[in-house]
Amino acid sequence: SQQGEEDPQALSIQEGENATMNCSYKTSINNLQWYRQNSGRGLVHLILIRSNEREKHSGRLRVTLDTSKKSSSLLITASRAADTASYFCATDEETSGSRLTFGEGTQLTVNP
Amino acid sequence: NAGVTQTPKFQVLKTGQSMTLQCAQDMNHNSMYWYRQDPGMGLRLIYYSASEGTTDKGEVPNGYNVSRLNKREFSLRLESAAPSQTSVYFCASSERVILYNQPQHFGDGTRLSIL
């Protein structure tokens, strides 16, 4: 079963706009991670936020975590065509041991 | 600096054939993972190896076997391929899990079609 569920499933924006993707999950977590997948490639880790953190930044990426609502958001500011990819959240459940559980992803298209 | 290398990149099999997907990492990671990715279903964990000498089932282990050959290599075997196993297979690795799961590093996948 999928722990993380991303919303929206697909997002299309213009270059320069901001893109926001959301992730909801069901159980208590140690941390939540975001990954990017370019077409035909493997996933690349973007950012990790721990359960005791509320916000984290990395370059043009901003991630928030609300453990009371069991949700996270990924904001990409000033988007570029090169940001076109699928974005996945992955949850590290407290009882999962060595496993991450991935959501189904958001397909982001940034139009030049 | 290769990271995680998967071979082959593409493979077509007939129903009932067997094959082994190979994965090797050069980052000295302790943990390794095999996932499958199907359209609209995200990644699903097949098997993982938390450390050399151990393997455990993931979410969808049926029809697969794994071998952690050494710290670097983790192979996935399909004993009798079925059309339902048509998918893209990803191998990943991460540093040793202590308090929480570390970020995973992925290979570029093996695209497997079973006719």
Number of strands of chain B: 11
Terminal CA distance of chain B: 36 Å
Low-confidence stretches of chain A: none
Decide which structural class fits the backbone of chain B.
mainly beta
Number of E strands of chain A: 11
The SSE string of chain A, one letter per element, is: EEEEEEEEEEE
**Strand proportion of chain A:** over 45%
Outline of chain A: globular
**SSE pattern of chain B, N- to C-terminal:** EEEEEEEEEEE
CA radius of gyration of chain A is: 13 Å
C-alpha Rg of chain B (nearest Å): 13 Å
Question: Secondary structure elements and their pairing?
Answer:
The complex is a heterodimer of chains A (112) and B (115).
Chain A: E1 5-7, E2 10-14, E3 19-24, E4 29-37, E5 43-50, E6 55-58, E7 61-66, E8 71-76, E9 85-93, E10 101-102, E11 106-111
Parallel strand pairs in A: 2-11
Antiparallel strand pairs in A: 1-3, 3-8, 4-5, 4-9, 6-7, 7-8, 9-10, 9-11
Chain B: E1 4-7, E2 10-13, E3 19-25, E4 31-37, E5 43-49, E6 56-57, E7 64-68, E8 74-78, E9 87-94, E10 105-106, E11 110-114
Characterize the structure shown.
The complex is a heterodimer of chains A (112) and B (115). Chain A is mainly β. Chain A has strands at 5-7, 10-14, 19-24, 29-37, 43-50, 55-58, 61-66, 71-76, 85-93, 101-102, 106-111. Chain A contains no helices and 11 strands. In chain A, the strands form 2 sheets. In chain A, strands 2, 4, 5, 9, 10 and 11 form a 6-stranded mixed β-sheet that branches. Helices cover 0% and strands 49% of the residues of chain B. In chain B, strand 5 (43-49) and strand 6 (56-57) form a beta hairpin. Chain A binds chain B through residues 1-2, 30-31, 33, 40-45, 48, 50, 88, 90, 92, 96-105, and chain B through 4, 31, 35, 40-45, 48, 50, 56, 58-59, 90, 92, 97, 99-101, 103-109.
